[in-house]
Amino acid sequence: MSLLEIENLRVTFDTSSGPFAALSGVSYRVDPGEVLAIVGESGSGKSVAMLAVMGLLPPSATVTADAMRFEGRDLLTMSAAERRKIIGRDISMIFQEPIASLNPCFTAGFQIEEVLARHTDLPRRARRQRAIELMQAVGIPEPKRRLASFPHQMSGGQCQRVMIAMAIACAPKLLIADEPTTALDVTIQKQILDLLMRLQADHGMGLILITHDMGVVAETADRVIVQYMGRKMEEADVLSLFENPQNAYTRALLSALPENATGTRLPTVADFRLAGEDA
Amino acid sequence: MTPALETRAVTRDYDVGATFFGKRRVVHALKGIDLTLERGKTLAIVGESGCGKSTLARIIAMIDPPTSGELLIDGEPIDIAKHRVTSDQRRKVQIVFQNPYGSLNPRQKVGDILTEPLLLNTPASAAERRDRAMGMLQKVGLTPAHYNRYPHMFSGGQRQRIAIARALMLNPSLLVLDEPVSALDLSVQAQILNLLADLQDEFGLTYVFVSHDLSVVRYIADEVMVMYFGEVVEHRPRDAIFADPQHDYTKVLFAATPRADVASIRARLEAKAAG
């Protein structure tokens, strides 16, 4: 059974100039222990899809789908209270801006313990102990001292580690990472990606990685979905996608990578669209 | 030939943590930077956040003065701590910032954004300023119809084109580009990099290109300077540094850059299957 299964997901935003379709009928499937990368540029709807799963879209959004099942349970028809038991415990999410995603008014320790208080019946002391273990697991040095640190006292990489500690606090079955390393330096990016991949392998988690960076996809994914303007362009396992991309847009994205430049000019997506129309 | 840009032992200190009782701590953001750059070449400065690359960019762009050391533009020593930057000096060096959402005044129309440098630094008449702004819009791939619009009406890539157009209005010889494509999508990034290459050919521009993205640097740079904690750890021609990085930190930086080629993917999948 798939861990998460979404069929024909549509998300429409009400705007002052009429409804805007951010996502027009895209299906997703993730198996336990699988790493799925969703790739696309801004406006491709890659984040919107997962925000819809988490129930984090604003009221102006209308979400419809033929099915949205987590471990066979229908997320669309279940009550909000039931859904809240799953979200944060079995499905958790980390975001792009680690410093902005943490609450600046509370310490790192408090924010990790809050997740445990909400979803487990551990007593206070055990929660503190578990928070220290989690901080150790995500590679924060001196976890005991760091419990009392506020987000502004930590670097971006450290804050992202705290976010990851919060996300894995209840050993989720599915972790959704929305551009987890975009705001970070390459050396820190490598550490965070290595950490995510290690946690994923150790716990057999499903991992959905939303990114615009083809390099990150190449280094992490098992399977890849390429999106453009709210539609799925291509879905393939990672090797076939890079070796033999089927879709014109995927080819455009790959050839726009500066490392793939053959001549003095980089091909752009517009070049490809014109070539495709001629053909 | 005089180099377009030269810095001699440039340092920059910042006072931080100055408390009410006067306890001070000094951060040495730059610890003596020497560099020379030939006209028409592109120097890429790479390094992590906090390595001092943007501090150096701001000193070269004559926004901040160095704490000590000398800055020479076209062989002319410049000390903005002592003398105001003259219009002639300002005309030679311009800067494009990373975030095109933050670097354009939301209450100025594009036309005003582009003509302001001329208004401040040249005696050009209003009609002349307008003509040159119109011409520049076309140079960077926009149209005269964009002249009367506000920045919020443009996409990120278009805004970065406006920022580049503004920097070129004074016909500078040296352009400092502080992470000009980091905030942009991949395909837009490709367009902007192409534009920068075209403009460099057309105007014989010298670029100082600050970036943390090594794949971009490899594409655009003639020389690469790697910085680490305020010091230059390696400064060599592009091909030499990519073929054979010498310093340990350069190696770490290269190793951390994700590889998107089929061979590396295959190797990773095999390692994973082997467990």
From TrEMBL, chain A:
Entry-linked Pfam families:
ABC_tran
Mode of membrane association: Peripheral membrane protein
What keywords does the record list, in alphabetical order? ATP-binding, Cell membrane, Membrane, Nucleotide-binding, Transport
Q: Which domain of life is it from?
A: Bacteria
Q: Name one GO biological process term.
A: transmembrane transport
User: Care to name a GO molecular-function term for this sequence?
Assistant: ATP binding
User: Mind telling me which CDD domains this protein's record contains?
Assistant: ABC_NikE_OppD_transporters
> Where in or outside the cell is it found?
Cell inner membrane
Domain called ABC transporter: residue spans: 4-254
Q: Which InterPro entries match?
A: AAA+_ATPase, ABC_Ni/Peptide_Import, ABC_transporter-like_ATP-bd, ABC_transporter-like_CS, P-loop_NTPase
Q: Which GO terms describe its cellular component?
A: plasma membrane
> Can you tell me which family this protein belongs to?
Belongs to the ABC transporter superfamily.
The record ties this protein, via PANTHER family, to: DIPEPTIDE TRANSPORT ATP-BINDING PROTEIN DPPD (PTHR43297:SF2), OLIGOPEPTIDE TRANSPORT ATP-BINDING PROTEIN APPD (PTHR43297)
Q: What is this protein called?
A: ABC transporter ATP-binding protein
What is the protein's species of origin?
Acuticoccus mangrovi
TrEMBL record, chain B:
Q: Which segments does the entry list as coiled coil?
A: none
Q: Name one GO cellular component term.
A: plasma membrane
Q: Which InterPro entries match?
A: AAA+_ATPase (IPR003593), ABC_transp_ATP-bind (IPR050319), ABC_transporter-like_ATP-bd (IPR003439), ABC_transporter-like_CS (IPR017871), P-loop_NTPase (IPR027417)
Q: Where in the cell is it found?
A: Cell inner membrane
Domain (ABC transporter): give its ranges. 11-254
**Keywords for this protein:** ATP-binding, Nucleotide-binding, Transport
Superkingdom in the source lineage? Bacteria
The terms under GO molecular function for this entry are: ATP binding; ATP hydrolysis activity
- Give the UniProt record's GO annotations in the biological process aspect: transmembrane transport
Q: Does the keyword Disulfide bond apply?
A: no
Q: Tell me which positions the record assigns to the signal sequence.
A: none
Q: Its family?
A: Belongs to the ABC transporter superfamily.
UniProt protein name? Dipeptide ABC transporter ATP-binding protein
Source species of the chain: Acuticoccus mangrovi
